[in-house]
Design a protein that fits this description.
It is a single chain. By secondary structure, this protein is α+β, with helices and mostly antiparallel strands. It has a domain at 12-79 and 99-182 and 275-360: FAD/NAD(P)-binding domain. The chain has twelve helices and 20 strands. It has helices spanning 20-31, 56-62, 68-74, 113-124, 172-177, 240-243, 246-256, 303-323, 328-358, 362-377, 379-389, 392-404, and strands at 12-16, 35-39, 53-54, 76-78, 80-85, 89-95, 108-110, 130-133, 138-144, 147-152, 157-160, 162-165, 181-195, 209-213, 219-223, 228-234, 267-278, 282-283, 286-288, 294-295.
Length: 411
């Protein structure tokens, strides 16, 4: 037990969702002597392949929880990321090692999100403060005078001091709290196709992370330990079934690198892309984090990372609230700040990436790409962009605002 607090007397929080954000929230709470019931609807730990990039700022936040070394061992260190033209090749490359003086992790870590979940869930087995319950889902949250209750779909009610909703974009917790989820849905869907074929043997100067512009079909190419993941847009004239077909995957991958034999496809998925933010991240003794609180365009890899940042600040702040070291007003400030950062940094940066690659207007796309080239060519603007893309600038902004409201929780 972290500091000798009894699991009987410790404050109790129910966390909905055992994805990366929910697991991090549970780790933060338990590390602060809070008892956790972690509820997951799936019968076993989710092995979703959706998010696979951890930014430097996120790795710094995860460092106190003893998971980063194992994540690095199970992942792939990506020092560079590049913007490419599909026909010309590399037009702008950014080197995260330029940040080596301000972070212990001057790289992106390509590590599928389920690996972080597996590492944390293994740690939870021996932690008496954490109870993980699979095949369970929250249907509603009920406020109490000094706490909250999680009502499960089974009919069971779990009384607690607070509830954290980390239950995804369709969050039952958010809906139960009556929070709106305003924003927009992009016209295109995104198709992700993964293959073990070594694309870098046939594409010169291919980085582990690549944003590829093209007037007809832009794409993103990401390397993980075992696979290349290719993301393509899907227009309205193609059904989900057509986009997910063998013919579709083969045609698109052959367009990346032509080869005489068929591609082996290890995984494929299609999904709609949204930019949405809940109107509130806190309602009484209930808190929203991750996709339950905000969803965004995946270009730039900031959605899951932003969710981890939510979990570290809001779960940590909630622990302080329950232990009496954080005031109710300060915790309101935490929640409002995380919402504003989702709007100011995550949503803005990911939408800029979408404009650079995906806008149908050729002149706008060309101008955005030219700006990226100029940005990479200048030492100062390249460094500033690295601070933004690494999410370090967002963390600095968060720390500045927390100090301004006299609510800095990190020592």
């Amino acid at each position: 037990m972290p500091s000798g607090v009894s699991s009987i007397t410790a404050p109790h929080v129910v966390v909905a969702g055992a994805g990366p954000v929910g697991c991090v929230a549970a780790a933060v709470l338990a590390g602060a002597d809070v008892r956790v019931t972690l509820i997951e609807a799936s019968p076993s730990p989710p092995r979703e392949l959706r998010a696979s990039t951890f930014h430097p700022a996120t790795l710094e936040m995860l460092r106190p929880y003893g998971v980063v070394d194992e994540m690095i061992a199970r992942g792939l260190v990506a020092r560079h990321f590049a913007y490419r033209d599909r026909h010309v090749g590399v037009v702008a490359r950014f080197d995260l090692d330029e940040l080596r003086d301000i972070t212990n992790y001057p790289f992106r870590l390509q590590c599928e999100q389920f690996k972080l979940c597996e590492i944390l869930l293994e740690k939870f087995v021996s932690n008496p403060l954490i109870d993980v319950r699979f095949s369970s889902a929250i249907e509603a949250v009920e406020q109490r005078s000094e706490g909250a209750a999680a009502v499960l779909t089974s009919g069971e009610t779990i009384e607690a001091d607070a509830v954290i909703g980390a239950d995804g974009a369709s969050s039952a917790v958010r809906k139960s709290l009556g929070c709106t989820f305003d924003g927009m849905t992009y016209a295109d869907r995104y198709l992700v196709v993964s293959t073990p074929y070594e694309l870098s043997d046939h594409m010169p100067d291919l980085s582990y992370v690549n944003y590829v512009s093209d007037p007809d079909e832009w794409m993103v190419l990401l390397r993980t330990v075992d696979l290349w993941r290719a993301l393509f847009p899907v227009s309205d004239d193609e059904t989900d079934g057509q986009a997910l077909s063998d013919e579709s995957a083969e045609r698109r991958l052959q367009g990346v690198v032509a080869k005489p034999t068929a591609y082996e496809v290890a995984h494929r998925a299609i999904y709609r892309v949204h930019q949405r933010v809940a109107d509130r991240f806190r309602v009484g003794r209930a808190v929203l984090v991750g996709d339950a609180a905000h969803v965004n365009n995946p270009l730039g890899g900031m959605g899951m990372n932003g969710g981890v940042h939510d979990a570290v600040l809001l779960a940590g702040g909630l622990a302080g609230l329950l232990h009496g070291t954080v005031t109710d007003q300060q915790f309101d400030g935490y929640a409002a700040l995380r919402r504003q950062l989702a709007l100011d940094f995550v949503q803005r940066h990911t939408h800029e990436n979408a404009v650079t690659l995906a806008t149908p207007d050729a002149s706008i796309r060309a101008e955005a790409l030219e700006q990226m080239i100029e940005r990479a060519a200048n030492v100062d603007t390249a460094y500033d962009y690295l601070l933004q893309a690494s999410m370090i600038k967002a963390v600095w902004a968060m720390e500045t605002e927390l100090r301004a409201i006299d609510a800095y929780p990190f020592g």
